[in-house]
Amino acid sequence: MEKLIERSDILNFINNGDTLLVGGFGLSGTPLTLIDELAASDKKDLTIVSNNLGEEGRGLGKLLLSGCLKKAKGSYFTTNRDAVQAWSDGKLEIELIPQGTLAEAVRCGGAGIGGFYTKTAVGTKVAEGKEEKVFDGETYILERAIKGDVSLIKALKADTLGNLVYDHTGRNFNAVMATAGKIVIAEVDEIVEAGELDPLEIVTPHLYVDYIVKNKYVKKRRKIR
Amino acid sequence: MSLERIKIAKRVAQELSDGEVINLGVGIPTLIPDYLGDKKVYLQSENGLLGMGPTPDEENINMDLISASKKPITMDTGASLFDSSDSFVMIRGGHVDLAVMGALQVDQYGEIANWAVPGKTILGVGGAMDLVAGAKRIIIASRHLAKDGSPKLVKELTFPSSGVRKADMLITEHAVFKFTEKGTELIEILSDLTVNELKEITGAEFLYSTQLSKSES
């Protein structure tokens, strides 16, 4: 199948200075194999759009320590002390975005919408410098859509066409990030033949997905509930 | 785990109604599910789950089934899963009945500061501002005093605001306050303090009824 590539191949699609949309919430639903490849590369000046920067030395935290990053955009960086340190040392730029605004900005990026007005953060430091508009007596601020050069996402299963299903809350930002990158690379635990996934369970249809990489850290499946 | 925190969680639990969709923030709010008794509510977790159940035993942990505090959880009967953008359609769009959250400060009209301390690095906001903007009702569950002994309920915020939308209620280990356009109203004392003693450890003035009864905690 043409979408399945070797994990080292992903470096051919990522250039210095690119903006990468990376799925995950903490370490859950995070493409750890793809991040490892990137962390071992000499890519530079990358901007990461992701809810967090993983944890110290784990997930995107590893990419931070590898020196590949210039900037991070996301909602919560306080849990990774390395990110806080890199920011206070002036080695990492951070743009803080409320979590719902981040999700909607990426959704708009993928949906061909340039921006949107939201009530979130009105009257706060996050709203400084942003256009305000009143609709039906309520104040909203303008937020721009977010798009990426490459999306790195994590799913549970792909079929050979690139249809994706996710593991529980591992879906998080992955489904929207699959829509907003020029190139979308999905890391998956398992690949099945087209037709084997129930169309009722497919969350990300194959047209969004350009390449598939097998997860090298497939976890032991445990029974849930 | 301190008794005061449990006391606050128990009192907040009394405010919850059957059938409500509730988002619980980090800290004290995470204790509330233990004190729901027979009440049936639906817990929404902003990372993509409606119908959060209790912590699983060791064999059933799946780190792709976690809470917004990144702890392993289970799914309750009737649970559903969705992505982050849909989760904030629920939150921002006014589909969540109640958000219970902590705060660094609350002003006399219920404006909330719960994401940043002045002079410190401001690197985490998470979903707090979305919940403040969009939840139908907001209860602040917090210790009465900050760790440095300063009151959390203040006349005017000195910490950065989380949004213009006001909280409906503040519950501490000492008291229950309601916020209205007139300001703060004391509706219940939860400790041995007299109203005057409570005034001394509170940074904003509050209205109260003369027949204010003391409740057993």
TrEMBL record, chain B:
Recorded superkingdom: Bacteria
InterPro entries: 3-oxoacid_CoA-transf_B, CoA_trans_fam_I, CoA_transf_AS, NagB/RpiA_transferase-like
Pfam families: CoA_trans
GO MF annotation terms: CoA-transferase activity
Listed PROSITE patterns: COA_TRANSF_2
Chain coiled-coil ranges: none
Keyword annotations: Transferase
Similarity annotation: Belongs to the 3-oxoacid CoA-transferase subunit B family.
Protein name per UniProt: Succinyl-CoA--3-ketoacid-CoA transferase
